Fold:
Amino acid sequence: MTDHRQPTGYPDYETPPDYRSEYGYEPEYDDYRYPDSDRRALPTEVGAVTRAEARRMQAAARRRRRGRVIGVLAGAVLLGGVGAAGFAAYDKLTGGDIADYAGPGGPEVVVQVHAGDTANQIATAMADKDVVKSSAAFYRAALRNDAISSVQPGFYSVSTQISGADAVSALVAPTSRVGALVIAEGRQLHDTRDVQTGAVKKGIYTLVAEASCVGPDAAPVCVGYDDLERAGAGTDLVALGVPEWARDRVAHVPDRNRQLEGLIAAGSWNFDPTQSATEILRQLVSASADSYEATGLESAGVNVGLDPYQMLVVASLVEREALPSDFDKVSRVVLNRLAVDQPLQFDSTVNYALDETEVATTDADRARVTPWNTYAMPGLPATPIASPSITALRAVENPAPGDFLYFVTIDKKGTTLFTRSYDEHLANIELAQHSGILDSGR
Structure:
């Protein structure tokens, strides 16, 4: 029996606001003319200023002052203010005449902060969503709150119709972040149970559902697990973001509920939680395809005799079977066995169909025929069995040299021995048995 380690320890200033369009200026009335044609305006002394002209001059001065503050603040750092001094200058030069809500606030909305956004761009997004009455209200508050520099790209749930200061405070509060998702290497779409401990490891659909919740804690609105699973089993693969190089293979997956396995990559992701389940999955699958393709996935497989989807399948096996230091060697074992049509016999593929994880598997489990069990059939499983890391994918693209056909993890530290000799492999299995790593909880 070939045994392999299952991974553990998942971690889980551009131009400021257009004040003219937002606030307006005092009306510039013409000199008042009496309707009586007999009453004419008195002649004005040369160089004297009429009342209307005085008003026009005052408005122009305000515009010049605002222009100066633009010059002062336009160089503010990304997502950051210029501190209390900058706020004081801004407030003085604008005269403090900024439209602002007093609160207490309305329903929550989701606002997106893009990578590279300045404080002014975030202010515009806040005003567009009616979080603040004016973008300047948020901008002024951001200058006063140094915490604005800690804001990361992503999606934030904040109340509408609140003051600029409250909006900045809400944005920098950790609890306002929504749609933030971390997928650990080797994670699967569905929840799995550890045979030894009974602990349940959350699958990708569960993690997405939890990250999608928006609104008050007492009554959050979330995209449900069942909604995600149903959407993920859809037949419109383009709508799901499945890349062209994977569509034919995915279209023939024997279990539609598992067809997106491996197509959502490990890593940190942000998604708009107000989208539908299908839209969320499309965003995640499309972005994952981009990250996979950046490794050269679409062409590297030629060197090892695999198409891009098969590369992803092998990378998932490598991820589940070894520590990163051994990824390239396990890749070589897979390729060597495929070359001689020898069954892979990976326990991780047995566990995948059972939705359970354990280093050791039983004779009965290994004899169960499924489209994934590589003890019961030659070749690769029907789909990836987890989300592989980019490190695992690169190991498949660049496997270690060697003629290895067997490997086994011999202790709980992850020490793995590789050999071409079956007799040596049997001796290595005895080492594993003595360490207790092969003790079964089934």
User: Anything to note?
Assistant: The chain has 17 helices and ten strands. The longest strand covers residues 108-113.
